[in-house]
Amino acid sequence: MIVVCSQCTTRLQLDDSKLPSRPFTIRCPKCQHVINAQPPVAAQGGEQGALGLGESPSLEHPRFKQSAPAPAFNPNVADEQTEMQAYAQPSSVDTAEVVRMLAALLQGGGPGKEAQTGAAPARPAWERRRALVCVTPAHCDALAQQLAESNYQVFVADDSSQAIERMREEHMDVVILDPSFDPVEQGAAFVTREVNIKRPGERRRLFFVHLTASSRTLDSHAAFVNNVNMVFNPADIESLPQVLERALRDFNELYREFNNVLSVAAI
After folding, report:
1. pTM for the full predicted model
2. How far apart are CA 140 and CA 180, in angstroms?
3. What does pLDDT average to in each consecutive run of 10 residues of the chain (267 residues)?
4. What is the structure's pLDDT at 115?
5. What is the spatial distance between Cα 231 and Cα 212, in angstroms, rounded to a whole number?
6. Quick one: pLDDT at residue 86?
7. Domain ranges in the chain?
8. CA torsion sign, 93 to 97 to 102 to 107?
9. Rounded distance, CA 248 to CA 259, Å?
């Protein structure tokens, strides 16, 4: 134990094994000032402090713990079996894609022809769109199921930390946010901030959707006010794939020249 004299700032080192278990006084050998000292916490009944045990109450709050990214959504078992059976069968789409690429290669096109002609490369048929779902439990399963059946790779966030970790870990094509998502931690505000702080080039590669019952689906004025790409009413969840496909088609057409210049595929 080290004791510092408050008058001459002399540092005195004391043997911990000889210290009493109660407060004590010691005289400074340099200036003879009386120093009031407290024994260390370990000497009082052999207990350790919370920081010594690694269980500080100030570190127990969930925001100080590293959160895992939002997990991928798994459809029901029947859909998984159907998907596996379809995967096991020969795919005419994949075969046609391979034939087209071989024909382009034989004709001198090659993989870089799109960049030479100024056209954006086509999105590969096997690359699924990634969608992050940040909504309340009331609409979560139905919405994720609709997206999964439309060949989206769906990630479902339970709270704002999972949503942010997922967006930082890999690029999302579509983010669907409910303003009532994770109200305890103000999840909607943090997810919106994570989208808005993206650089312009990254933001144009993300389709941001608000799920709200206070506006009609595809309300362009509400989308402009909320600084999102599309507004969707939960009453129309059954038609979500068709509405989203139409909105994405318009979005890609809007940024077609932008994508051509950067030689990137449409969303």
Report:
1. 0.60
2. 12
3. 79 80 83 80 47 48 62 62 49 59 62 52 79 93 92 92 91 94 90 92 93 93 94 94 94 90 86
4. 45
5. 7
6. 47
7. 1-44, 96-126, 128-262
8. positive
9. 14
pLDDT at 261: 87
Give pLDDT, residue 65. Answer: 58
The predicted pLDDT at position 46 comes to 44
Identity (one letter) of the amino acid at 208?
F
Assigned superfamily of 128-262:
Response regulator (3.40.50.2300)
Residues 6 or more apart whose Cβ sits within 8 Å of residue 71: 155, 156, 162
What is the Cα–Cα distance from 186 to 183, expressed in whole angstroms?
5
Using alpha carbons, list the distances in angstroms from residue 15 to 20, 130, 150, 162: 11, 63, 72, 50
Q: In the block, which residue shows the tokens 């959160």?
A: 67
Tokens 């350790």 identify what position? 48
